[in-house]
Amino acid sequence: MRHMETWFGLTTDKWDSGFPLTHREKKACLTNLRKKYAIKLVTSEAYNHRSRVLGEAAEHEKTHGIGCF
């Protein structure tokens, strides 16, 4: 998890993970992180269905005019 990159052996009360404090901002931040991880997973060379997913994304962009990646 990327937030663990900010931990340097501090106690939890002194640790700043970088997550916002309000529920709404935290939810938005986590949603963005989920999107980043999903994109990394489905566009990875190791993913067996990569070409199909990228083809469907390109087709979606042509028909809807909205880029996925």
Strand and helix map with partners:
Elements: H1 23-42, H2 50-64
Describe the structure.
This protein is mostly helical and 69 residues long. It has one domain. The chain is built from 2 helices and no strands. The chain is elongated. The two termini are 21 Å apart.
Question: What brief labels describe this structure?
Answer:
mainly alpha
Reading the helices and strands in chain order gives: HH
Secondary-structure class:
mainly alpha
What number of domains?
1
Task: Indicate the mean pLDDT.
Answer: 81
- Overall form: elongated
Largest sheet: none
Number of strands: 0
First and last CA, distance: 21 Å
What is the CA-atom radius of gyration, in angstroms?
A: 17 Å
| Count of separate DSSP helical elements | 2
Helical content (DSSP H or I, runs of 4+): 40-55%
Low confidence ranges? none
- Strand share of the residues? under 5%
In short, what is this structure?
With 69 residues, the chain is mainly α. It has two helices and no strands. The radius of gyration is 17 Å and the shape is elongated.
